[in-house]
Amino acid sequence: GGGPARGRGVSSEELLSVKNLSVAYKKHTIISDINFSLNCGENLGVIGESGSGKSTLALALLGLVKSEGEIKFFNEKTWKKNNLDLRREVQVVFQDPFSSLNPRMTVKEIIEEGLKIHQISGDVSAIMKRLHLNSDLQNRYPHQLSGGQRQRVAIARALILNPKILILDEPTSALDYVTQSEILKLLAEIQSSQNISYILISHDLEVIAQMADFIAVMKSGQIVEIGEKKQIINSPKNDYSESLITNFRL
Ligand code: ADP
Ligand code: MG
Predict the structure, then answer these.
(1) What's the pLDDT score for residue 83?
(2) What is the pLDDT confidence band of residue 60, given thresholds at 50, 70 and 90?
(3) Nearest Cα to Cα of residue 145 among 101, 177, 176
(4) Potential cystine with 145: which of 51, 59, 120, 149 (Cβ 3.0-4.6 Å)?
(5) Which range among 205-209, 214-218, 222-226 shows the weakest confidence by mean pLDDT?
(6) How confident is the model at residue 2 (pLDDT cuts 50, 70, 90)?
(7) Strands 44-47 and 197-202
């Protein structure tokens, strides 16, 4: 049926299982009751208005904020033991590459950094080529790049570690429409040749719809509805999801 694109490396193997996840800052609940699971190769889109808890969910999945509940990768791994393997397997790209890229490091140094941390080898030129970054950009600094190039460097830095999951938090929100489309196309291209799952967070349904197999709708720190993309877009069951999607159709 109209499920996730099979043949793209989607399998019935569990990639991620989240149960009863919550995050609180100083006893103030930011997200709660988060439950979902995802299989290898499947892409999840997380949509919701600003302040709904999308970035907090990303940070929790990355083990970068304290959370309650269960986050389990590949049926076994959790953040509980300082798991360097998992640190490599779950990568992230944030919205603003200007603040996430060290201004004093060259493109080459930025892309190589994770390789050193994880003591693995990788081919900087090859990964740059895959991201359509000319290799003569290797010695440039972030401020010498365009916004789209900067974000592709951030993606290269993540992908050179050969992750199984790439979490993208508003990856194209700071970019113009054409650059945004190019990056989404590149991500799809990469997925057609390697096994990877994307968790794509955006406030923009158009971005989510291009890439997601499943969509989770967030409101006030909770997932109010989650389902296959088609179902969420064509026949949302939740009133809030419906209003969100109707707004995008206008
Ligand atoms: P989104 O990414 O959907 O815009 P966030 O996860 O960034 O939402 O934020 C969700 C809520 O949590 C917001 O009300 C925000 O003000 C609050 N929040 C986010 N980070 C912190 C923090 N470090 N301390 C306290 N409150 C926070
Ligand atoms: Mg956010």
Answers:
(1) 86
(2) very high
(3) 101
(4) 149
(5) 205-209
(6) very low
(7) parallel
Give the residues surrounding ligand 1 with Cβ less than 6 Å away.
25, 30, 48, 50-56
Residues sharing a CB contact under 8 Å with residue 189, sequence separation 6 or more, in sequence order? none
Neighbouring C-beta atoms of residue 193, cutoff 10 Å:
10
Please tell me the predicted confidence (pLDDT) of residue 7.
Answer: 52
The pairing of strands 14-25 and 28-39 is antiparallel
Q: Ligand 1 pocket check: which of 21, 30, 96 to mutate, most ligand atoms within 8 Å of Cβ? A: 30
pLDDT given for residue 174 in this prediction: 86
Distance 167 CA to ligand 1 centre (A): 17
- Centre of ligand 2 to C-alpha 56, Å, is 7
For the chain, the residue count is 250
* Confidence class for position 5, pLDDT limits 50, 70, 90: low
pLDDT attached to residue 4: 56
Neighbour count for residue 120 (Cβ, 10 Å): 12
User: What DSSP line would sit under 169-197, residue for residue?
Assistant: ESTTTTS-HHHHHHHHHHHHHHHHHS--E
Question: Residue 112, CB half-sphere, CA atoms under 13 Å: how many?
Answer: 11
Taking Cα atoms as reference points, which of 244, 216, 214 lies closest to residue 39?
Answer: 214
Backbone angles phi, psi at 169, to 5 degrees: -100, 105
